[in-house]
User: What shape does this take?
Amino acid sequence: MSFDDIIDRIGTHSSKWDLMEPRFGVPASDGLAMWTADSDYPTADCVRDVVRAAADLGIFGYFGDYGDFHEAIGWWMRERHDWTIEPDWILTTHGLGNAVALCIDTWSKPGDSVVIFPPVYHEFAGKIERAGRKVTECPLSRVGDRYMLDLDAAQARLTGTERLLIWCSPQNPSGRIWTPEEQRAVADFALRNNLILVSDEVHHDLVYAGETFVPMDVAAPAARHALVTLTAASKTFNIAGQRTGNMIIADATLRAAMTTRLHALDLAPNGLGVKMVTAAYSPEGAAWVDAQIAHLDANRRLFDAGVNAIPGVRSLPLQSTYLAWVDFSGTGMAYEEFDARVRKTARIAASPGPGFGTGGENFLRFNLATQRARVTEAVERLQKAFADLQ
Assistant: This one.
């Protein structure tokens, strides 16, 4: 099956498609779901094969022995990211959302603050606040199409109650890939302020030709004693529903603290998810990812060309991810107006920019991990919805 075969996900309990109408008012009958960050095409055959084999066996009892799983993760990080890790550094959680929540729970207490750099993945702030902690926003500055750090301004925003810094690399929603120098600056900032540095690297495989992603642990090894790296195959292979994510923690003291918390909460890996990730992190999986990147690259070029032809609208160029970050500020419209045009006129459900924090007020985020025909349709609908600007 190719990346362009249309699959109807309505009625499959897909949050992306089945919640589109109740959440956005976009009709299921002819709406386009371009919000939740999962893909509209099946995962790699090597992953599907292990699911078929498990179904054929028909026994889903308690699961043990994670040796192959840890070996596959180590192979993937070494081969795809030039990052050498040890098997005992790997702790597995109920997805990366759970991993973020566990970090907040383990290394802070109610009333403490957590640093984030908006505009950034909306669930960082959501998890912080739901845990009874406070958000310390250190907004990124925008220079042209590029987001930049302002760590002097960030320092001035700290209150002294911060315990963690949650970092997003590659950056969601902008697709920005941070340089090793920038990552070292962030690590130094965290160490200077006695912060645990949690680096969410879930989009690290979705990098376009000519760009290079460097893990925080590789870029800033001096910060290893305060670093927790979060990775998963979920975005890469469209298996987020298996809720299988990893914390990679080199420091024995940090790792012991998290291990204790995992045991206290009786959290253990999902057996089928473990098998799927083990199969994904393989030469066959790598070849599938390379093909997916080529598909996404063509999608982003098509989308950017069409959207950027609308006066006052700008889709920021992606270095990574399949999430287009589109700026509507040049239209002069308030958020409510351009959002309504997208939802009601174009009938597209996109992620609301304000949810990403300071700096997202004039934006919507569009998921391009879909069939080419749907991207083409989205561009045509958006151009019609803003035709009066021509």
In short: The radius of gyration is 21 Å. The chain has two domains: 15-44+286-389, 48-284.
